[in-house]
Design brief:
single chain; 287 residues; alpha/beta; D-Maltodextrin-Binding Protein, domain 2; 2 domains; 5-stranded mixed β-sheet; 3-stranded parallel β-sheet; 23% strand
Length: 287
């Protein structure tokens, strides 16, 4: 009788032990368990990190933050600089997708190319267009937006087309492509200033006759400033050459060019670029 009892007890303990092992094994392989979920999340984070090609990079970005609707800077109540505009939104999206952090170096537009040549900055995004002259000193990305050229004038001006600028003082921001446009217009006197705000003031005070700038900037400034109007240069009136695209500039031979070109293609294909362009420049700027 005792032997039978010992046998039954031993058999029961064995069954219980196997049952415990089975439950433990089931729990460890359950895809909904906390441990498995943590492993899956870690794996996903690792894959996301691998997809962010510049996740270990802190980049210096040079810009001239006085080009309205592309990049401007203000100081908030806490004394912190706040940048906004099309280029800033594109920069933030690229930073998110590629994983890099960045700091902005704000400087006059005429100093941007030099900042790349002297390795003060890793790239420039500042409403800059490709030109053959600039391409001798820096490398450019593919275009991220199409440019339109505007002429800002007084509302009572008799200037209505490019040919009317003959014999006039025409202002633009120093070091920009707009200098080349003014120089290409017969009979104009080029006057340069550092930034659109200074130019607008000169125009209001009748010290210049017109200002050439981005089409959206001309439109917005005229809407916000009493007594000013604008028109868009018709390409049939003059050859704008390569001055119809906005591109990112890099030091010669930078490995970032191909990475940023791929990102520009991605943002164009998924509609992000058009969304941002419409937000800041208007639907007429969408290709």
């Amino acid at each position: 009788m005792i032997k039978k009892l010992l046998f039954v007890l031993t058999f029961s303990l064995t069954i219980f032990a196997f049952s415990g092992c089975s439950k433990q094994q089931t729990a460890s392989t359950n895809p909904n368990s906390d441990l498995t979920q943590d492993v899956q999340e870690d794996t996903q984070d690792s894959q996301n990190s691998m997809n962010k090609l510049l996740s270990d990079k802190h980049l210096k970005v040079a810009m001239s933050a006085n080009f309205k609707y592309f990049e401007t800077v203000t100081v908030d109540a806490n004394g912190k600089e706040v940048y906004e505009g099309l280029d800033i939104d594109i920069l933030d999206k690229m930073s998110e997708d590629l994983g890099f952090t960045y700091e902005i170096i704000n400087m006059p537009f005429a100093s941007l190319i030099g900042a790349l040549q002297s390795n003060q900055a890793d790239f420039v995004i500042s409403g800059m267009s490709y030109t053959d002259e600039r391409a001798e000193s820096v490398d450019f990305s593919d275009k991220y937006a199409t440019a339109k050229i505007g002429v800002l004038i007084k509302s009572d001006s008799n200037i209505t087309s490019v040919k009317d600028l003959n014999g006039k003082k025409v202002a633009c921001s120093a070091g920009t492509n707009y200098e080349n446009i003014v120089k290409a217009i017969e009979g104009t006197e080029l006057v340069t200033f550092d930034g659109q705000a200074a130019i607008t003031q000169e125009l209001i005070m009748d010290r210049v006759d017109a200002s050439i700038t981005g089409g959206t900037a001309a439109k917005k400034v005229s809407e916000e400033t009493e007594g000013l109007s604008y028109f868009i240069i018709d390409p049939s009136e003059m050859d704008l050459g390569n001055l119809n695209t906005y591109n990112i500039a890099f030091p010669k031979g930078s490995e970032l060019v191909s990475i940023f070109n791929d990102e520009i293609t991605k943002l164009a294909e998924d509609g992000t670029l058009n969304e941002l362009i419409i937000k800041w420049l208007g639907e007429e700027y969408v290709d």
